[in-house]
Amino acid sequence: MAAMTTHKKDPLVRIARRESMPTWQSLLIRIGSVLAALVLAGVIIYLLTGASPIDVYKSMLQGAFGSNPKNYAQKSWITVRDTMMLLCIAVGLAPAFKMRFWNIGAEGQVLVGGIATAACMIYLKNLPPLLLFLCMVGASLLAGALWGLLPAVFKAKWDTNETLFTLMMNYVALQLTSFFVAKWENPVGSNKVGIINQGVNAKQGWFPAIFGQDYLLNVIIVMAVTVGMFFYLKYSKQGYEISVIGDSRNTARYAGIPVNKVIIRTMLISGAICGLAGFITVSGSAHTISTSTAGGKGFTAIIVAWLSKFNTFTMIAVALLLTVFDKGAIQVATDFGISKDMSNMITGIILFFIIGSEFFINYRMIFRKKEKEAA
Amino acid sequence: MEGFISLFQQAVVFGTIIMFGAIGEIITEKSGNLNLGVPGIMYLGGISSLIGVFFYENAVDEPNKFVCAVIAVLCAFLASAFGGLIFSFLTITLRANQNVTGLTLTIFGSGVANFFGGSLNQLSGGVGQLRVPATSDAFRTQIPGLSGIGGPIGKMLCQYGWLAYVAIIVAIVAQWYLSRTRTGLNLRSVGENPATADAAGLNVTRYKYLATCIGAGISGLGGLYYVMDFTQGKWANDGTIESLGWLAVALVIFTTWRPKNAIWGSYLFGILYWVYMYIVGISRASQELFKMLPYVVTIIVLIIISLRKKRENQPPEALGLPYFREDR
User: Fold this and answer.
1) What percentage of chain A reaches a pLDDT higher than 70?
2) Complex ipTM, two decimals?
3) With contacts defined as CB-CB under 8 Å, which chain A residues touch B119?
4) Is there a domain that residue A134 lies in?
5) Do A348 and B94 touch (CB under 8 A)?
6) How far apart are CA B188 and CA B185, in angstroms?
7) How many Å separate Cα A333 from the centre of its chain?
8) Residue A93's domain spans which residues?
9) Which member of A86, A149, A265, B301 lies 3.0 to 4.6 Å from A319 by CB, making a disulfide possible if both were Cys?
10) Is the pLDDT at A207 greater than 80, yes or no?
């Protein structure tokens, strides 16, 4: 017995990394976490308003997909449009994150892309439509790439902390947006740019409707980028270099991969796609520019990209899920007479659950076996 | 001179908000946790203090100012520390990614605060109608004896609500704690190299949890100061706290992770932020460019410290990195 007491007890729970988990099992955990979050959100709304949870969930679905045959299509298209915007940013972040380069600056990259697009719409509105479009695409890609390039160069050359650098660049971009909003304001004194090119210059630089759908072009562009990025990351040499650097910078160096060059190149791509998202928003849906053009989506997209493990097809599902929740929560707020800001609270709770559930996918807990009494 | 005095006064009030935020975040980051939830935490601190005193002031006829202040500070600290606890639980116990969790905390905090802020405004009959006069008065009370000092120096240094001086004291205590005490040294070692700290017998998990929660609590006081002193007990859903929160994160870099630098750094940020009001003849558009200054300065500082590579100015070595004993 004396020997037993000096022997230290095992901890109650040990945690070990899982080698792998069947896809259905990990999917089940994720769905379970979303459901648990929804139940908690329902309870919170019930406590605050006394509304029956079933009504709340119904109202959520109506917010995302419409409440009657007349607005099914319209509401659903708006949900799809916003999903595409979020998806585009997340896809842009994917290569950077896969390289373990924390690009927190999507918000700013989207904004400068939006500024560049708006500038083209305002100053080049007399160009033929196709040329104008090329200008807008080029300008937004360039602006976003520039915003991504700066932190990347300093990271590559002097190992400057990229998380903090890109974060600060967001606010430089935000003030830059305020500057241009004040410069382009219309009417004067409103401190708003207003809808660009309405009336006389009807819809110069706006996305054209395809098959009568205003937002179909948004979907086409973003899906093309999404599929392209999937193959770029998975099957191209550059994509392979990115993943080696992400796993270990030293291994990459040893293997002869030009690490600095790849970092800069990848951030150019990442920033450019985020800039493109700004183009899609300004030209394809908002038709104006304001400090809320990015609207926090640059931050939400970080979460989307991370949760999807850099798989751009998974991102479609995650982006759709978050957009549906967002739209749904706004509808709930309207229907039950509570503040619209509830949607952020609900989104936060759902994300906490999803983030937390990752633990059960990546690790397993081993409980201490009950020690049998020695006979 | 008059202009400079009022600029300085504005800068101090503004700076105090981000000073609290930054000191809390420095303590958090010294444990190796990069908590990007500072804006959310400041939101939580601001709104919960407002909720607490709102119900207290409505429940009693003659609210006692001292009780008001105690309730406000306690609510702000506890709610913000709770935000830190969510972050700690997810990143330390459940091993989630710090950046992602922090950003989620910001989304969550802004949602909670604006939701309840909007509800409080509704309860009191519309935006701008919300009033907590006793508490707001309590927080704007100046230090007796000090506030009487006249002249430019007196105006610049002595006429602020007491929380502004508390911020300076907190900064000094935090500096002393980090650089002069044994537990402070331990905390820094956890942030620099948790594996070594673990091997030396320190409880890494406990240090991280405590530093993050207490740090979050201090950051939340920034939200309290904003709500009670800066806006005088009103609530507006205009996202100001969020931009102040990011400015606090910027200030952490600017101070090179030293609380004592936050004292002058925060006032400098305030001056940089407000200086456009005192430059004659610039357009409203250019004013917006001036507001960029604190962020640009921060980027420059970030670049300089990475260029000079002085060891004592670097971010904590393990900042943002997870530590799991079993992964080694």
Assistant:
1) 92
2) 0.86
3) 338-339
4) yes
5) no
6) 5
7) 23
8) 77-328
9) A86
10) no
